[in-house]
Write a sequence for this structure.
């Protein structure tokens, strides 16, 4: 009989949708047993602007996931994004006391790197991610444990976020009757779900195209090298359509999903689309190519900003594995072709990988963050806690608010 260890829940609180994914961890693998989604009503660009609306949307997604998984969810892992997210690099150096690298030396080096960055009081540390170690003059070491030397250095990727934005997100989850086990950067979570180890080794940029934000993570030599959150996403495409077509935001979203394309060349010249008007005016027929033209312009802008981030990180021309698109907005036809043209890289659209069970229900790119939160917990065993009541489940865990002062994720 397979051995059941934990029930883990990933809660993706996005600008356009809220998604809860439930998995049981069986023999070290994530076995998907349920999922629930709900339209998101209280966020703008990844930041809470209406607590009551957000709480209501969370409850609906959780209830749907509970019904499918036949468990009572009480604690979750959540992702965080938004324009307030910032990242930078740091370097730490320590002397080796015993002539070889011990775990305590690695922690001291990481702490030295963290301490070299001055973090303003209105911001808090989210992640300190080692990118590589140097023992004496030997660089490119991923795991230096046990290596002989006199000096240990480490390069780290540090991610910070606004305290108030994180507190509001946690408060919404708590008011929905849930505890937060951990708060994880969304592009980091998504990359756990859609990138392969080979891509991370060769060099790859992942772009998670959400409703209010586009999350970017650049990997090389097996570790994260750069991350960013752009305050632009699929909602901006919808807004452009609403203005260009002179229709409501709701109808513009429907038109985008049903008739949208990111490339004009994918649309036939003579095809017409009925567009509802506002204020009781009659509907109009609009060429589908005009719709594609509006979408293509905004999508090009998004990837121009992505290319700017790649250049800022110093990885232009160095991403051998190309790019991977994920997130709900990546489902627009022609999106990967526009990305290839703008970034001058081979690009694929990626859904969640590395899970078992009811994989079909989470195979879409829009579930990448929800699944990635589960995989992040699985690959960081010291943070793995039970997220639901079921067979073999444990009691609820305390709120993450109790550990806000020491807000540093697992290093490995």
């Amino acid at each position: 009989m397979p051995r059941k260890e934990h029930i883990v829940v990933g809660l993706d609180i996005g600008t356009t949708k809220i998604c809860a994914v439930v998995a049981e961890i069986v023999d070290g693998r994530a076995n998907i047993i349920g999922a629930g989604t709900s339209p998101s009503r209280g966020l703008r660009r990844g930041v809470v602007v209406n607590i009551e609306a957000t709480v209501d949307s969370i409850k609906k997604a959780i209830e749907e996931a509970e019904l499918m998984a036949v468990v009572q969810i009480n604690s979750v892992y959540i992702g965080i994004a938004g324009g307030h997210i910032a990242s930078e690099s740091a370097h730490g150096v320590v002397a080796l006391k015993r002539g070889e690298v011990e775990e305590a030396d690695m922690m001291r080096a990481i702490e030295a790197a963290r301490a070299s960055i001055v973090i303003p009081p209105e911001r808090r540390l989210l992640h300190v991610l080692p990118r590589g170690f140097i023992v004496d003059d030997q660089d490119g070491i991923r795991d230096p444990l046990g290596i002989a030397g006199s000096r240990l250095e480490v390069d780290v990727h540090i991610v910070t976020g606004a305290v108030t934005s994180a507190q509001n997100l946690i408060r919404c989850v708590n008011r929905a009757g849930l505890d937060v086990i951990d708060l994880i950067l969304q592009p980091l979570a998504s990359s756990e779900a859609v990138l392969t180890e080979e891509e991370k080794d060769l060099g790859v940029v992942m772009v998670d195209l959400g409703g209010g934000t586009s999350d970017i993570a650049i990997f090389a030599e097996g570790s994260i090298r750069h991350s960013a959150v752009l305050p632009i996403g699929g909602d901006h495409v919808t807004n452009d359509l609403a203005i260009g077509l002179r229709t409501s935001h709701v109808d513009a979203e429907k038109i985008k999903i049903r008739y949208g394309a990111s490339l004009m060349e994918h649309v036939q010249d003579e095809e017409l689309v009925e567009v509802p008007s506002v204020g009781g005016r009659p509907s109009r027929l609009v060429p589908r190519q005009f719709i594609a033209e509006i979408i293509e312009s905004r999508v090009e802008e998004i990837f121009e900003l992505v290319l700017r981030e790649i250049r800022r990180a110093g990885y232009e021309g160095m991403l051998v594995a190309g790019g991977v698109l994920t997130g709900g907005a990546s489902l627009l036809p022609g999106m990967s072709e526009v990305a290839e043209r703008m970034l001058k890289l081979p690009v694929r659209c990626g859904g969640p990988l590395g899970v078992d069970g009811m994989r079909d229900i989470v195979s879409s790119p829009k579930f990448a963050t929800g699944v990635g939160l589960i995989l992040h917990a699985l690959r960081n065993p010291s943070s793995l806690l039970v997220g639901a009541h079921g067979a073999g489940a444990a009691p609820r865990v305390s709120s993450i608010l109790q550990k806000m002062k020491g807000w540093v994720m697992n290093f490995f």
Remarks:
- The first strand starts at residue 4 and ends at 13.
